Structures are given as C-alpha cells and as structure tokens.
Amino acid sequence: MWTHDNVVSMLAASAMLRLLPMLPVQGLVQNLCFDLSQLALVHDRVDDSETARPRTFDRRGLARFVVCMGPVGALFDLAAFGLFW
User: Fold this and answer.
1) What is the DSSP secondary structure assignment for residue 78, as one 8-state letter?
2) Rg, the chain, Cα only
3) Largest alpha-carbon pair distance within the chain?
4) Which of 13, 33, 73, 82 is a Cys-bridge partner for 5, taking CB atoms 3.0 to 4.6 Å apart?
5) Mind giving me the DSSP string for 15-61?
6) Can you tell me the mean pLDDT for 57-81?
7) Rounded to an integer, what distance in angstroms lies between the CA atom of residue 10 and that of residue 77?
C-alpha cells in the first residue's frame, strides 16, 4: 500500500499538472517492488536479549516521525514532478 505522502503527492500533481505524474501501472509496480523487498524481514536475525521480554511501543516517537517525514517526502515528490515537467 502506498504511503500517505505518495497519495498526497499524486493527487496534488494530478490537479496541478497537465500530465499524469505516474501511470497507474507504475504505481502498482512500485507497490509490488516494495512488497517484495519486505520478504527480507522473514530472514532477519534478532538477538535473544531483544525477545526475552516485551518492549513498550513509543507512540509519540512514531507520531513525530510521521508528522515530520510525511510532508517532507511529499514536498520532495512535488519538487521532482515540477523538475521533470
């Protein structure tokens, strides 16, 4: 599934440009490549100390990352679309 910044970038570029920034089949191929790359996680080795006891999940850290990197990624996507146009 596309990340939200890609969706925002595609919607904004489609509204502003006279051309499609990416064909639907390109989006599907990008999604397939991302999904295939995630198969490497199955072979990841984790230290026993990491699995010995449960860890807490830091929601604030994840929220900060998403709020910061989402718009930054969308801006870079839009800048690239403008450059290629």
Assistant:
1) H
2) 18
3) 55
4) 73
5) HHSSS-SS-HHHHHHHHHHHHHHGGGGGG----HHHHSS-----HHH
6) 86
7) 9
